[in-house]
Specification:
Bound molecules: NADP nicotinamide-adenine-dinucleotide phosphate
CATH superfamily: NAD(P)-binding Rossmann-like Domain
Number of helices: 9
CATH topology: Rossmann fold
Number of strands: 7
Largest sheet: 7 strands, parallel
Structural class: alpha/beta
Strand order of the largest sheet: 3-2-1-4-5-6-7
Shape: globular
Distance between the termini: 50 Å
């Protein structure tokens, strides 16, 4: 029987590309997000804001009525934020944590009974290279993704007896709607960071819009679904693999020097 896969954030970018790719390969795909994809799609869809507990529970009940089990959960919904730590209001920090962290915790918790009904379930969390390399003027994004890595590691140990495998995919720059949807720096009077924030954001936006096609992440996810053993964390593309290795072995001060040169 074809595997049943639920993808959050399936209306755009990595989630949409993954849902379409897996569906074209014969997987039964269920997409969720707050809006429908703006392009043609051929998978089941439920509107759901993952930051709204009542809506998540209601959506998962609707899914349970239609599907006996779920084999793979892909937590791809997400958003970005930019601006100096000093300038960012706590409400914006809460907003990004609500989507990038609490939303995934909520969807995962609610879906676990259905995942347990699968013989070999998998949970794939979309994190970011920025989880391991903290970016200036994107601190709260890096922090939210580092939380997802920690969540992935702990969850994987807790779910081992149920044979549910957990993995975080850490993409680098990917060309999606993410750049346009990123929260812009909060405007404050006498901003001491204007020029540096602008430079950092322009650089980031340019890198993303010249970035990798999301289909490469979709294909990586397909390989992870097929594999018996999966890593706890993985990335896509030689340059991002090299960046992760350098980050692991170089002294932190040297890594910080290069990151500051690029984005600081
Ligand atoms: N693009 C990159 O360079 C990059 C790099 C590394 C990691 N990532 C990560 O990859 C994931 C996907 O991002 P993307 O690049 O594909 O960006 P995207 O094109 O902006 O897609 C984001 C998706 O998340 C959904 N979403 C946002 N808030 C939501 C909410 N409250 N409830 C339900 N769905 C919500 C959006 O759908 P609706 O608006 O319809 O709700 C959309 O489908 C994110 O976790 C992001 O952090 C992206």
């Amino acid at each position: 029987m074809n595997k049943i896969v639920l993808v959050s954030g399936a209306s755009s970018g990595i989630g949409l590309e993954t849902a379409r790719h897996l569906s074209s390969k014969g997987y039964q795909v269920i997409g969720i997000s707050r809006s429908y994809p703006k392009v043609e799609y051929n998978f089941d869809y439920f509107l759901c804001d993952i930051t709204d507990e009542k809506k998540v529970i209601k959506t998962m009940h609707l899914i349970e009525e239609k599907y006996e089990h779920i084999d793979v959960l892909i937590n791809s919904a997400g958003m970005g934020i930019s601006g100096a730590i000093e300038n960012t209001p706590l409400e914006e920090v809460e907003q990004i944590y609500n989507v990038n962290v609490f939303g995934h915790i909520l969807v995962t918790k609610t879906l676990l009974p259905l995942l347990r009904k699968s013989k070999k379930a998998k949970i794939i969390n979309i994190s970011s290279v920025a989880s391991e390399i903290s970016l200036p003027f994107q601190a709260f994004y890096s922090m939210s993704k580092a939380s997802i890595d920690a969540f992935t590691k702990a969850l994987s140990m807790e779910l081992k007896p149920f044979k549910i495998k957990v993995c975080a995919v850490l993409p680098g720059d990917i060309k999606t709607g993410f750049t346009k949807n990123r929260l812009q720096p909060y405007q404050v009077e006498n901003d001491l960071y204007t020029e540096r924030t602008k430079h950092s954001l322009n650089r980031m936006a340019k890198d993303e819009q010249n970035g990798m096609d999301p289909i490469r992440i979709a294909k990586k996810i397909e390989r992870l679904i097929k594999r018996n053993r999966i890593p706890l964390r993985t990335t896509v593309g030689f340059s991002y693999k090299a960046i992760r290795v350098l980050n692991k072995f170089l002294p932190e001060k040297i890594v910080q020097f290069f990151v500051r040169k690029l984005y600081g």
